[in-house]
Design a protein that fits this description.
Radius of gyration: 23 Å
CATH topology of the largest domain: 2-enoyl-CoA Hydratase, Chain A, domain 1
Strand order of the largest sheet: 2-3-4-7-8-13
CATH architecture of the largest domain: Alpha-Beta Complex
């Protein structure tokens, strides 16, 4: 018994920075997580992991510690993310790199064309900040303006900037739709208006392609359009990532944690896609684009 106690004391003494990270993460989660009761439960788990020296084996390996902690937090909410930041690079280094990539891939507008039958096709791979994405979306919809219908391809789109996703929804809805959702934080809800229209409205028939890697802001687009009956969804059930988070919270020893602090509530359905994903109206099979085109092509008149 004495040996066991001494071993535990030695582990605690060997990993004071790790313990400090867990305690600070617990306090931040308890204060900020989107549901107060669940936040308290997650915080208690973090404190118990610190007390148990759950991660002592990775005391000298920050990457392994972060990976295992993220895995454990995923059991509560897959939107948590803990990482150790390179002090020399700065915590916004990844964001600067992401923005720089926008210039190499069309600010997320990866493909736009007019298919046979005058059906438009637009593939958006991610949602970059609005000031980068808006000119590319404007160019895309200028080409698509005279098409008879549109396939919006959001497969493998993991989300990104809310403003760009909002603009896309705004462009695909009638002006009377001034909002599609509220944001809820610890029981308090606030309506989120869509942005002013900065692109001509596209109100032709619409099909949205999704898959299991469609997530977050991309799911918002698909779910919002489906809920209003504006689009039919084709493919496989999406990733189910609705919870949202703001700037990471700084923790001791160079770590930081992203904490889900809000969730969208659709005005039509009263819910969201967290965990369930966006459920397609039609399976995509081996060729989702073919299925989408069939839905947009009116049947030939019988003779």
């Amino acid at each position: 018994m004495m040996v066991s106690w001494m071993f535990g004391a030695l582990l605690a003494a060997a990993c004071p920075a790790q313990d400090a990270v867990l305690q600070a993460a617990a306090s931040a989660v308890q204060a900020q997580y989107l549901d107060e009761g669940e936040g308290a439960r997650i915080a208690e788990a973090l404190r118990s992991w610190a007390k148990q020296q759950r991660y002592a084996a990775s005391c000298a390996d920050p990457a392994a510690f972060s990976a295992r902690l993220n895995q454990d937090l995923d059991s509560f909410d897959g939107h948590f993310h803990v990482e150790r930041v390179d002090a020399a690079a700065g915590q916004d280094d990844w964001l600067m790199a992401w923005r720089a990539d926008a210039y190499r891939n069309g600010a997320g507008v990866r493909e736009v064309r007019v298919l046979e039958g005058n059906i438009g096709y637009l593939r958006v791979s991610t949602f970059y900040p609005l000031e980068l994405a808006q000119p590319k979306l404007a160019a895309a919809f200028a080409l698509l303006a005279d098409t008879d219908g549109l396939v919006l391809d959001l497969r493998q789109n993991g989300g990104g900037d809310d403003g760009s996703a909002d603009l896309l929804v705004r462009t695909l809805l009638e002006a009377k739709n001034v909002a599609v959702q509220q944001l809820e934080q610890r029981g308090r809800r606030s309506e989120v208006p869509l942005p002013p229209a900065s692109l001509p409205a596209y109100l032709k028939p619409l099909v949205v392609l999704v898959d299991r890697r469609t997530a977050s802001a991309a799911e918002f687009v698909a779910y919002s359009l489906q809920a209003l009956g504006r689009a039919r969804i084709v493919g496989t059930r999406s990733g189910g990532a609705a919870h949202m988070f703001g700037d990471p919270v700084l923790l001791p020893d160079g770590y930081q944690i992203s904490i889900p602090d809000r969730q969208p509530i659709n005005l039509r359905t009263g819910g969201n896609w967290e965990g369930t994903g966006v459920v397609p109206d039609a399976a995509g099979g081996d060729d989702p684009l073919f299925v989408a085109r069939q839905l947009l092509t009116p049947p030939e008149s019988s003779r």
